[in-house]
Amino acid sequence: LCGVAQVYSSLYYSVFLALLLAVVGVGLVLVHRPPVRRLAVGGVIVVLIAAPLAWPVAHAFSAAQPMKGDRSIEEVGFYSAEPLDYLRTHRFTGVWNGVLPPPLPERALFPGAVPLALAAIAFVPPVTPAAVVYAAGLAVVFEASLGTNGFLFPHLRDWVSPVRGLRAPARLGVVVGLCLAILAGFGMARLQAWCPSPRVVRVAAVIVIGLVVGEAMPRLTLHPVWLEPPDIYRALG
Prior knowledge:
Elements lengths: L1 H8 L1 H22 L3 H33 L4 H6 L34 H9 L7 H17 L6 H8 L13 H21 L4 H19 L21
């Protein structure tokens, strides 16, 4: 049901999420090795519930495809990320604006220093198998976000029809951030395991949350607005 809700919310991110889930799903199956029968029953239930609910959107997308056509490779290339874009900050970023490279259209992908640091802590030995699986998912969606600058996305355009209608591979940066958030959770768990007492655990949690919130605070420039409607609206009286 959550997957269907994502389809209705944004086909873009439902396609991107499916790519991530394919990698992570296979990885978690290899790690946990659940019974095949249990997987099969769950898969059948998913298809029976999700397919009819998602069909109206899929049908509308397919019907519009001949009129809309595929995105040109030049357009996709303009909105394909480069590795440097993961150091570009949004123009409203408070902490890093002016320190890191400026944004480009659809390509301000810096996820923040705190999530990166926490994700790095997750790979201090011993590393859990689940962290390795999500790291593999992170690597795949990062590479796909490079679009025409990478290896995977051109093949996805050839193999997966909905991908040919997507303009901005760099938007996969959102899914990269999702993976980082999960890995940051593993890192936070590792950090708390190093704490000598429950009190220190709580203090560490408060400090990390404060750092995350502080880094995410935007820098907004406020401007006075008109108190009366401009003259152009007089005709609406």
